[in-house]
Fold this protein.
Amino acid sequence: MKSRKTKLPYKIILILALIVISCYFVVAVLASNKETSTTFVGENKNWSVTVDVNNKGNLAEGTYVAKYKGNNIENILEKEISYQVNYKSTSSGGSTYLLDNGVIEGKAFRKSCSNGCPYSTINDPELAFVVVVEGNEESIILQKNE
């Protein structure tokens, strides 16, 4: 009889421990898949730029929209435009053409992050967006929109 009494509390304790561990695991998984978004905005005399950064788990993906607001839009409609999004040692960029409405847009970066994604948790709340048209470079500082 004595052995049966000691087994019952042991089984209850074991079941409770498994329930607690399972709950902790579920909370940890849900927290790692948390989605956050950060928007950066800036402009100069020729460009107005917005970069949206979305983080879900260990993946950061950004999109940009840059609107040309300078004079003589027809002069650059058919010219190749190089762009780059910069944050500290991380950057992403490419080349494209201005759309008829004066906009360039696309993916800024897509990065898998092992220890968290730096874009949404940056201490320095800035990104830089660099535009180059026929060798003329313009840098637009983008501030974190809070």
Remarks:
- The longest helix spans residues 2-32.
- DSSP finds one helix and eight strands in the chain.
- The CA atoms of residues 103 and 138 lie 16 Å apart.
- The beta strands are 35-43, 47-56, 59-68, 80-87, 90-97, 103-112, 126-133, 136-145.
